Threonylcarbamoyl-AMP synthase (Pseudovibrio exalbescens), 328 residues
Amino acid sequence: MERWQLAAQDTDFKKDERFARVCRAIEAGELVAVPTETVYGLAADATNGQACARIYEAKGRPQFNPLISHVESLEAARRHGIFTADAERLADAFWPGPLTLVLPRAGSSTVSQLATAGLETIAIRVPNAPFMQALAEATGKPLAAPSANLSGRISGTTADDVAHDLEPHLAFLIDTGPTSVGVESTIISLVGDQPTLLRPGGIAREEIEAVLNTRLVSAGTNDSAPAAPGMMSSHYAPCSSVRLNVTEVHQGEALITLGTALPAGAEKASQRFNLSAEGNLREAASNLFIALRQADKATQVGIAVAPIPATGLGEAINDRLLRAAAPR
């Protein structure tokens, strides 16, 4: 694996000879870890079934769990998905950004059936991530790019996280430092009668409902035939057990909090991790997976999490925590 370290604001990377080599690696069906604004993605050519199979193999991911295809523009997305008026409105409002749309698959789409798990729909987004956009544009390929971590485990928001989980499988690791959003994209299905929230994420439910001028239906979980990533009941899981909404901390637990309030017995914690001292949910989301990974290393007893409000990005934070705490 070759690790390429870049400043997050670097706009000249396409002039570097390494960019051409990364493009060739994608075209050859290899795997490249690429930062996005949400988490690091394990990228491969979405039109290449063998490359997509390498993603599933590297992550240990079940092949019935579909992959999101990342493209450089709305124009490129229209080649793969059938855009309704609602889809156009959401794309105009939130792309590039942390929103994935699940749409009927267009007849012109070249995305592999393995990437879509054989469904008649496709999950697609335009990330606010210069390197990912440039890579899709330069190769002319939609990029299948689930989170760059072992399946079911904590998503990677730093290059070191990615290297720890996946280094043997990577041709390149593009390192631009910690990701800014810190949780995966919000996934909205526009297939069927009502817009449906399949996965809370980096854009709050309320923002999407304001654009559509309607309430979103919530999809829940699906362990056998998920319509999109992040819908399985156990996901984002550390090795340690996780207790949520704790009012009292047990001796030796690692404690994750938000704001200044502490549960009873906080002094018994092996270590404390505050997602945001000011109670800022955007900051908390960006720190969530980092805190879970660090807490997992700091305890042999378990992880205790204080209550997190469920409004705004708190919905996405609580979704990740519920799946992290689910029976495995």
